[in-house]
Amino acid sequence: MRSALSTLEVLRPRTLREALRMLSANGARPTPLAGGTDLFVYLNAGTEQATRFLDLSRLAELRGIRVGAREATLGARTTFWEIRRHAALGARLPSLAAAASEIGAWQIQHRATIGGNIANASPAGDSLPALLAHDARVRVASRGGEREIPFDALYTGYRKLAIAPDELVTAVVIPFPPRGSLPFFRKVGTRRAQSISKVVFCGLLACDRRGRAVHARLAYGSMAPTPARARAAEDVLLAGATPQLAAAAARAALGQDLTPIDDIRSDRGYRLQVAGNLLEQFVRSLPAARR
Ligand SMILES: Cc1cc2nc3c(=O)[nH]c(=O)nc-3n(C[C@H](O)[C@H](O)[C@H](O)COP(=O)(O)OP(=O)(O)OC[C@H]3O[C@@H](n4cnc5c(N)ncnc54)[C@H](O)[C@@H]3O)c2cc1C
């Protein structure tokens, strides 16, 4: 049954400090509310248990995109529209810009935040493989202070996060990949746009002058209970031969890395087939090695 909005309480802090105090106060802990594009769906479906919310919309500390020399820092309230429209960010992190431009429709992109995508912790979250492939770090704050969590340690199980209940995501820090890295992003859904991913993939490869891989990241969404790195396949790509020669063996290794499920959107076999196709498509898109 739909949640009756009149029974909900919304706290509206003006500063991060005030928000963190409200989050750690005695009594029913409020649930953070950013763009609401996930939470309102849960409220509408009657699956959201929370009745107290912490509106993050006034927190200036959670805003802003800073592009530095080595990494970009995005405030948790950065929307996907802001990401896809940011030229300097798009030039350095094209896979993230590609993910942002494929999340929902424009209306959703104007409200949906990267912090919400991260904290919602869906294995189908489209920005998550891009963050994983770039070795991002999630910055969280509580009244006790601030800390950073490496992205590959963030998800501890299906929709489980290594973030304490009194912590807020304040930013995500994304290092730029090694010079010469080639990125690849592809989302596969029921239709070309505006569908939940059956498989979402972000790859990054850097090769030396002889065409051998020296840096490899293969990150998938919707292929395991959490966003997942295909480390066995990465190792195959890094093992010596060029990615072009190693592609078939890397594809075979995906079976060790990924544990997709059968659900209403797809079955396991289809997902594994698509994951392999995307890996091969990525490798085929690389320039031929110089001899
Ligand atoms: C029509 C539609 C289409 C969509 N399409 C896509 C899609 O293509 N791809 C995709 O990945 N997603 C999609 N989504 C899901 C949603 O838009 C994203 O997950 C979005 O990034 C959520 O961000 P939000 O700001 O709206 O989060 P909210 O709904 O406000 O919050 C989501 C969760 O994160 C928590 N949270 C939010 N901010 C913080 C914070 N700073 N610190 C701690 N916890 C926090 C909330 O408590 C809640 O649990 C779609 C949703 C809709 C309704």
How are strands sequenced across the largest beta sheet? 4-5-10-6-7
| Strand content range | 15-25%
By DSSP (H or I, 4+ residues per run), the number of helices equals: 11
Weakly predicted, low-confidence segments: none
The largest pleated sheet is described as: 5 strands, antiparallel
Computed Rg: 20 Å
What form results from the Cα inertia axes?
globular
Distance between the termini: 65 Å
Order of H and E elements: EHEHEEEHHHHHHEEEEEEEEEHHH
Structural class: alpha+beta
Indicate the percent of residues in helices. 25-40%
Task: Please state the average pLDDT score.
Answer: 94
Number of strands: 14
Bound molecules: flavin-adenine dinucleotide
Structural features, described:
The structure is a single chain. The protein has helices spanning 16-24, 39-45, 80-85, 87-92, 94-101, 106-111, 114-120, 128-133, 231-238, 243-257, 268-284; strands at 9-11, 31-33, 52-55, 65-67, 71-75, 137-142, 145-150, 155-157, 160-161, 168-175, 182-188, 199-207, 213-221, 228-229. With 291 residues, it is α+β, with helices and mostly antiparallel strands. The strands form four sheets. A five-stranded antiparallel beta sheet has the order 4-5-10-6-7. A hairpin with a 2-residue loop joins strand 6 and strand 7 (145-150). Helix 9 packs antiparallel against helix 10. The structure holds flavin-adenine dinucleotide. Flavin-adenine dinucleotide binds at residues 31-39, 41, 56, 76, 103-104, 108, 111-113, 115-117, 119-120, 125-126, 168-169.
Features:
291 residues, binds flavin-adenine dinucleotide, 33% helix, globular, five-stranded antiparallel beta sheet
